[in-house]
Give the backbone structure.
Amino acid sequence: MEKFKKYLSSIASISDQEFIDSSSYFSPKKLKKGDFFVRENQVCPHLAFILSGTIRMFYLNDKSEEITSCFCTENNLTSSYKSFVLQEPSHLMLQAITDIELIVISYDGLQKLYNLFPVWQTIGRAVAEQEYFRMERYAAILNNESAKEKYLRLLKEQPEVLQLANIEDIATYLGVTRRTLSRIRQEISN
């Protein structure tokens, strides 16, 4: 829980007592590589903090091809946010690409924290803002950077993903074909 407390403290001033009192609303969860945190058309039951491991967030396009939209790594929150917040079926899927250790909270549990502790309203707003900025940044990168620039950015910002994820998932995340990704890797290694 110390990693989680450190993460929360970077967002808002949560006192030791508030953290202790809030802890009972969270529970540990483990996923094995390949397990789903949420599947398409399932209501996302939890918001999760990743203690260790990596989750791939993806969806199916109109050709039923998997398109990776995010690699969620340790010390970050993850969820199918729209599904979780609106309590409606998800169009996203979240799948472990490694063994995962999480701390999770249910929708009802989070609502109770919002009512009990004003600091959780601050945390909730900050997390929503961060998620919005992350998605806006991803869209800008996808539309404005070359495939090579996108790959170099991933190499710099999330190098572990390049070791853990398969090449097809990385290619769809970057918005390129597998062949283009192989060519980029070859150029960089030379």
Strands lie at 27-31, 36-38, 46-52, 55-60, 66-72, 77-78, 93-96, 100-106. The mean pLDDT is 93. Residues 142-190 form one domain.
